[in-house]
Specification:
This protein has a single domain (about 5-120), classed as Jelly Rolls (Sandwich). Helices cover about 5% and strands about 50% of the residues. The protein has about 120 residues and is mainly β. The protein has one helix spanning about 30, and strands at about 10-15, 20-25, 35-45, 50-55, 60-65, 65-70, 75-80, 85, 95, 105-110, 115-120. It is globular.
């Protein structure tokens, strides 16, 4: 494992559902441990993630840019740059980008999740 991974070498993933992009920052494959997983998610205006939950992990988000709505179980919260959100093991959640600019956040799982379960299996 190198002590520095250049931004151009970080694994990236494009959503099959909309304009979202994920950049992996910490994975077991990259660093050899599963006590933490982290990535950066960037939504384009109007993007909405599918409702889902994670098994075996607490989830924490640090909003880095833009505005959105954080849905957690049956509640919804307006969020913006600088806000922090959290969800426990098995709590259903998803985000919506609400502004005219991109919406992005750092996302951490402690420990890395065992599985991700989509509420509507084909809605990913």
């Amino acid at each position: 494992m190198p002590p520095v991974i250049k931004a151009s070498e970080l694994p990236t993933h494009d959503s099959t559902r909309d304009g979202r992009k994920r950049i992996d920052l910490v994975t077991e494959e990259m660093f050899g441990f599963d006590e933490l997983r982290a990535d950066y998610i960037r939504y384009q205006p109007g993007d909405t993630a599918a409702a889902h939950y994670h098994v075996g992990a607490r989830h924490i988000w640090f909003v880095a840019e833009g505005t959105g709505i954080f849905h957690l179980n049956d509640d919804s919260y307006e969020i913006a740059t600088g806000d922090v959100c959290t969800a426990g093991d098995g709590e259903v959640h998803w985000f919506e980008a609400t502004g005219d600019e991109p919406f992005g956040f750092y996302e951490l799982w402690v420990p890395a999740p065992v599985d991700t379960v989509w509420v509507v299996p084909d809605d990913i």
